[in-house]
Amino acid sequence: MAVPQPADLTIKKSVTLRRSVAEEVESRTGPRGFSHFVDQAVEYGLALLKAQEIVEDHENRVAPPMRLGAQEGPGKS
Prior knowledge:
- This protein is mostly helical.
- The chain has helices spanning 19-29, 34-62.
């Protein structure tokens, strides 16, 4: 995970979580570590989305998926 830089200001946001999720996070982090845990989880989720976008872009440029109903090349069934 990226280490926050001094210029990386924080902002306060209100989010809604399922009670069971919030309770599990708090049981693992304590009340003072909750925001840090959520920040890291969101950062991780964003990294996964970015990686998926890179893979999809590569697949589209290198080997575009065949469209349904598209004819296959000669000698292929």
